[in-house]
Design brief:
Layout lengths: L3 H19 L3 H23 L21 H32 L4 H6 L3
Helix pairs in contact: 1-2, 2-3
C-alpha cells in the first residue's frame, strides 16, 4: 500500500485551508474551498485504488482477476457534482454581497452585521 496519495491529500488540504484563512476576498476564498474539495477526490480515489486491477466493466476477464471498486468511482463523480453545486451557490452569494454592500472583503462584511 502506498501512502503517497494521502500525503498529496494532506498537502492539497493544507494549501486550500491556508488560502481560506488568509484570504481577504470572497471569490478567492471560494476558489480555495474548491482546492480543499479537490483533496477529497484524491482521497476517495486513493482509497479505492488497487494495484494491478482492471476496470470493473470488462466482461471478458478471468474470474479471479482483481478489479477496481466502481462504488469509489461513483462517489468521486458525486463529489464533483456536489462541489459544482456548492460553488455555484457560493458564487451567487458573493455576487449578492457585492451588489448589496459594494465589497467582497469578508472583514468589512462582518462590520455590516447588526
Amino acid at each position: 500500500m502506498s501512502y503517497l496519495p494521502f500525503f498529496v491529500v494532506a498537502w492539497i488540504l493544507g494549501v486550500g485551508l491556508y488560502g481560506i484563512v488568509t484570504s481577504r476576498h470572497l471569490v478567492h476564498q471560494i476558489i480555495c474551498l474548491i482546492v480543499v474539495q479537490s483533496s477529497t477526490y484524491v482521497l476517495i480515489l486513493g482509497v479505492g485504488y488497487v494495484t494491478g486491477a482492471v476496470a470493473p466493466y470488462f466482461y471478458d476477464i478471468p474470474v479471479h482477476t482483481p478489479a477496481v471498486d466502481p462504488v469509489v468511482q461513483a462517489l468521486a463523480l458525486t463529489d464533483v457534482v456536489v462541489e459544482a453545486a456548492v460553488t455555484a451557490l457560493l458564487l451567487a452569494f458573493a455576487i449578492q454581497a457585492h451588489k448589496r454592500f459594494g465589497t467582497l472583503d469578508p472583514h468589512e462584511l462582518v462590520q455590516l452585521k447588526g
